[in-house]
Amino acid sequence: EETGQIAALPELRRSVEGRQNIAALVEGVGELEFFDVDFVAVLDPSGRQLAFSRERPLLLNAQGRGERRRLDGVDVLTLLGSPVVGELRAGRRASSSIDVIPEADIVAELAGVEIESPTGDGRAGYLITARWIDQLTVEAIADSFAPSHATLIVGERVLASTLPFPVPADALVPADVERELVLGGPESRQQTVGGDTYFGSVARLPNALGNPTTATISLSAPSSIVADTREDVIRVLFLAALGITIIVLVLAWLSG
Questions:
Q1: With b meaning 16 or more CB within 10 Å and e meaning fewer, what string describes 85-107?
Q2: What's the mean pLDDT in 182-209?
Q3: What is the pLDDT of residue 230?
Q4: 52: CB partners within 8 A, 6+ apart
């Protein structure tokens, strides 16, 4: 809906139709507070890039600190290789999905719509927007499920986390859990990270077809918050599983 509202802006439609001032408009849209988008791109009817914004997701660097760089041309080409763009070029008026681009360390809620000609006689191009799933996202998730911690993993890399220390991906998603996640369901179990014990649940983010992507969200609750009874352990594992299911459903709803 938000992407459609941006595409309907008269100044954007005129600019795309006339191929004038598109880059400035794209950068301006990304800075407007009432549009909650992190990336904006405009394509012509053949799918060729006309303009795009350059701010990357906020991700953890090698030192465990949040860092944001600017997108380069290769990043954008990879991002715009999304099935969302392919569906638009195939004739759909709108499309959306969660897309994962491991080589660019990007997980995004991508949406695209056609831009109608201001004269009403055809398609002037396409508008693509994205909301990054990044450090800011996992911090918001952790706040919602405090005192649990949230982590975003793609492949063998931890891209974002609120855990108070660096953590390898296989500590949260060991090989046996990884095999279960391929089937699409969440997995809940005790996690040992940095010598501390957590009760956690992990799940793959789904794409528009509901199939699991390679992006994994982990929700970890410190074991110190529960009593040493079997019932309490089961309760916390259930709550972690419920929490991770809610997170996945909300992210999927936002992208679709």
A1: bebbbeeeebbbbbbbbbebbbb
A2: 76
A3: 47
A4: 26, 39, 40, 41, 42, 71, 76
